[in-house]
């Protein structure tokens, strides 16, 4: 071993420093004490450059990055999101996540205790979703060049044998179902964002949806034509993407939209429209009209689906547009959001 | 949500609509002053439910929309100064000045922050003694008391590194400018509920009498708006022209004395340039001489060239009620919310944005 003066600190200190991302001893120690021991499994234990495994049959593959601020918020944290988000992206393809990669970009100065806490949530979320974290990466960037902690996860999983999810199977008359109350995640984040703090009991809805999707596919298979989790951009953006791709319309009923009263009040106060606010634990399903009532009843029996509702239907009319019938019977077009949703003056 | 859901009751809406169809015998053109009212009309699909004889014109009551390019350029200049934290209400950020918007300046490195209250900006100044904190004090009479209070508080706490860029506009002079126009089309007004919560209703009495127009102070929920329209049309059908108060649950005739005291403490009435309309005498607020150290224009000695607006933008015609947004050749083409030519396309309260957001099927 070649020594230099002064001797570098080798102990894992209180905060992450650039040394933890150097690839040397500090990186090794950080990973060993904080990551490998906690998340260990046959693949991680090999500490190889990648994971090797066999997969038979049709699989889905997805990736997502998580940059939420603050890292901890009512009802969840960045660790929960990083696991549930990618599990859900795969679930929307009709796939059950099996293996995940996990990469960190850490800003120097992050408290190691906080990093450890996030990892604990990652472990619990992965266990709850039944996925193995099989490979990963850690980088450290200078202070001011990140926002505490960014996480990327990629996942792979087998597609359910009865899944035939593609927007080109949607036809007029199909029914639009949302699996739970909308806008909770975005408003939970807003309630603790610096400068906007307000008192509320609104919690993020972050949860894995793969079990819900598996049960529905077991029962209704190809009758489920479209699944999407309305994360950034909210329900309005997902439906606009669908109508743009299919050249069909959607008629939504404002009365049937499930919105928690506290979430609605917070949106009202901040001048935000719940249709555009992010969700992390609900999905939009477009299904054949024939199975819609029984599928809705089935959803009500599944954890996380208790508040599911039929919110509209697919139409031949107003092709490419999402139209909402207001509570008082008027009609309006629900467009894509231009840029970010900005709070109103008064 | 108590105090809101009652005013979104479909049965009540039906009742007002039924009555409105019954009393309306002739064509009438009404202007809702406030952008919040425009948005609610369009968002709830109310415009298509009204009797066909009633033409609603969307007035100049969106503060974001009427803030002039020159003031936006001042805001951009301030935001780009070293050691300035520039604070604003959210929807001012996307409004284009002559070169760019505050959102662009922020992306390019300016310290621009979205706040919900100017009092937060004073606190920010306390926490950042080596920085200059400037608050973009835009809005009608509604936001003026809080902005004035921020100056009073900064003075009382000895906060020297705080100032405001005042761009306040006033409703009554704008109404007079519209009514005094020889091409005026407006038969009656829905006055802006929140402005009157602060200022009361008395300053509208002389306008109603001079121009012989009914003015009904109106709220923002569907039932409020329909009741306001019904009260205005009922007056027009009877030939009366009084000031009435539909929004009595919020608006007192004499207004809010404490709020007005704060305004008069800090601001003088001044001439103001309105985007798309031009200069209107005595139609704005400027920081008083006594508080000049809190006036960002004075403190930073800002002198910028006056800029012209995009010649394709017909926002003036729209805000005067001469044209609808969909009659603009640039609407939905060159001018869209993600690339606005003029301010009514920018704010969620702007007439063009409201049409684009909620009524785009109309123009397809």
Structure description:
The complex is a heterodimer of chains A (346) and B (364). By secondary structure, chain A is α+β, with helices and mostly antiparallel strands. Chain A contains nine helices and 13 strands. Residues 8-13 of chain A have low confidence and may be disordered. In chain B, strand 5 (132-139), helix 7 (144-156) and strand 6 (162-169) form a beta-alpha-beta unit. In chain B, the strands form two sheets. A six-stranded mixed beta sheet of chain B has the order 4-3-5-6-11-10, with helices on both faces. With 364 residues, chain B is of the alpha/beta class. Chain B is globular. In chain B, helix 6 (118-127) runs parallel beside helix 7 and helix 7 crosses helix 12. Chain B contains 15 helices and eleven strands. At the A-B interface, helix 8 and strand 13 of A face helix 2 and helix 15 of B.
Concise description?
With 346 residues, chain A is α+β, with helices and mostly antiparallel strands. Chain A has helices at 25-39, 42-45, 78-92, 112-129, 184-192, 210-220, 234-246, 261-270, 292-300, and strands at 59-66, 72-73, 76-77, 95-107, 132-141, 149-159, 175-178, 224-228, 249-253, 284-287, 309-315, 322-325, 331-334. In chain A, the strands form 3 sheets. Chain A has a 7-stranded mixed sheet with strand order 8-10-7-11-9-12-13.
Keywords:
heterodimer; A: 346 residues; alpha+beta; 7-stranded mixed β-sheet; 4-stranded mixed β-sheet; 13 strands; globular; B: 364 residues; alpha/beta; 6-stranded mixed β-sheet; 5-stranded parallel β-sheet; 37% helix
């Amino acid at each position: 071993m070649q020594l230099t003066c002064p001797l570098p600190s080798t102990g894992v200190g209180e905060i992450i420093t650039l040394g933890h991302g150097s690839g040397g001893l500090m990186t090794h120690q950080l990973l060993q004490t904080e990551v490998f021991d906690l998340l260990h499994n046959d693949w991680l234990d090999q500490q190889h450059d990648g994971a090797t495994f066999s997969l038979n049959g049709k699989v889905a593959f997805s990736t997502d990055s998580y940059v939420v601020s603050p890292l901890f918020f009512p009802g969840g944290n960045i660790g929960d999101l990083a696991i549930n988000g990618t599990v859900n992206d795969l679930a929307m393809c009709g796939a059950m996540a099996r293996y995940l990669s996990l990469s960190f970009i850490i800003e120097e100065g992050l408290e190691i205790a906080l990093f450890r806490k996030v990892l604990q949530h990652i472990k619990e979320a992965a266990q709850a979703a039944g996925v193995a974290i099989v490979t990963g990466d850690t980088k450290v960037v200078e202070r001011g060049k990140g926002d505490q902690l960014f996480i990327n996860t990629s996942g792979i999983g087998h597609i359910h044998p009865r899944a035939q999810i593609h927007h080109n199977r949607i036809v007029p008359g199909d029914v639009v179902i949302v699996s739970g109350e909308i806008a909770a995640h975005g408003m939970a984040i807003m309630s603790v964002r610096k400068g906007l703090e307000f008192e509320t009991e609104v919690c993020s809805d972050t949860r894995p949806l793969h079990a819900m999707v598996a049960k529905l596919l077991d029962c209704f298979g190809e009758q489920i034509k479209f699944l999407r989790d309305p994360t950034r951009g909210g329900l309005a953006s997902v439906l606009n993407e669908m109508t743009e791709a299919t050249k069909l319309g959607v008629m939504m009923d404002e009365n049937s939209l499930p919105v928690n009263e506290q979430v609605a009040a917070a949106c009202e106060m901040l001048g935000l429209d719940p249709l555009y606010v992010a969700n992390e634990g609900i999905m939009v399903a477009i299904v054949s009209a024939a199975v819609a009532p029984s599928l809705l009843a089935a959803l009500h029996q599944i954890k996380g689906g208790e508040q599911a509702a039929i919110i509209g239907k697919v139409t031949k009319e107003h092709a490419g547009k999402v139209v909402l019938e207001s509570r008082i019977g008027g009609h309006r077009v629900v467009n894509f959001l231009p840029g970010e949703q900005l709070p109103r003056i008064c | 949500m108590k105090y809101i859901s009652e005013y979104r009751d479909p049965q009540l809406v039906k009742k007002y609509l039924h009555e409105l169809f019954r009393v309306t015998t002739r064509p009438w053109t009404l202007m809702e002053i406030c952008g919040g009212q425009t948005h609610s009309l369009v968002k709830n699909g109310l415009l298509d439910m009204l009797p066909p004889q009633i033409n609603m014109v969307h007035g100049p009551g969106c503060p974001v929309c009427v803030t002039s390019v020159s003031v936006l350029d001042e805001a951009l200049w301030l935001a780009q100064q070293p050691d300035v934290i520039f604070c604003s209400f959210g929807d001012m950020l996307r409004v284009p000045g002559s070169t760019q918007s505050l959102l662009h300046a922020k992306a390019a490195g300016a310290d621009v922050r979205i706040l919900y209250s100017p009092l937060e900006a004073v606190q920010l100044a306390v926490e950042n003694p080596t920085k200059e904190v400037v608050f973009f004090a835009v809005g009608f009479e509604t936001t003026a008391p809080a902005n004035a209070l921020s100056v009073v508080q900064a003075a009382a706490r000895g906060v020297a590194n705080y100032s405001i860029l005042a761009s306040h506009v006033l409703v009554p002079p704008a109404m007079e400018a519209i009514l005094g126009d020889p091409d005026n089309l407006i038969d009656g007004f829905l006055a802006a509920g929140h402005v009157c919560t602060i200022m009361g209703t008395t300053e509208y009495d002389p306008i109603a009498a001079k121009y012989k127009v009914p003015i009904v102070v109106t709220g923002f929920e569907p039932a409020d708006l329909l009741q306001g329209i019904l009260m205005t049309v009922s007056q027009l059908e009877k030939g009366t022209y009084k000031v009435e108060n539909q929004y009595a649950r919020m608006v007192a005739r004499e207004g809010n004395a404490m709020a007005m005291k704060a305004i008069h403490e800090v601001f003088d009435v001044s001439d103001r340039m309105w985007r798309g309309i031009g200069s209107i005498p005595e139609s704005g607020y400027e920081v008083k001489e006594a508080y000049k150290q809190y006036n960002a224009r004075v403190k930073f000695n800002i002198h910028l060239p006056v800029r012209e607006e995009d010649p394709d933008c017909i926002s003036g015609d729209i805000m005067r009620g001469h044209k609808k947004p969909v009659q603009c050749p640039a609407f939905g083409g060159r001018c869209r919310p993600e690339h606005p030519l003029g301010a009514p396309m920018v704010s969620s309260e702007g007439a063009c944005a409201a049409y684009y957001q909620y009524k785009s099927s109309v123009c397809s």
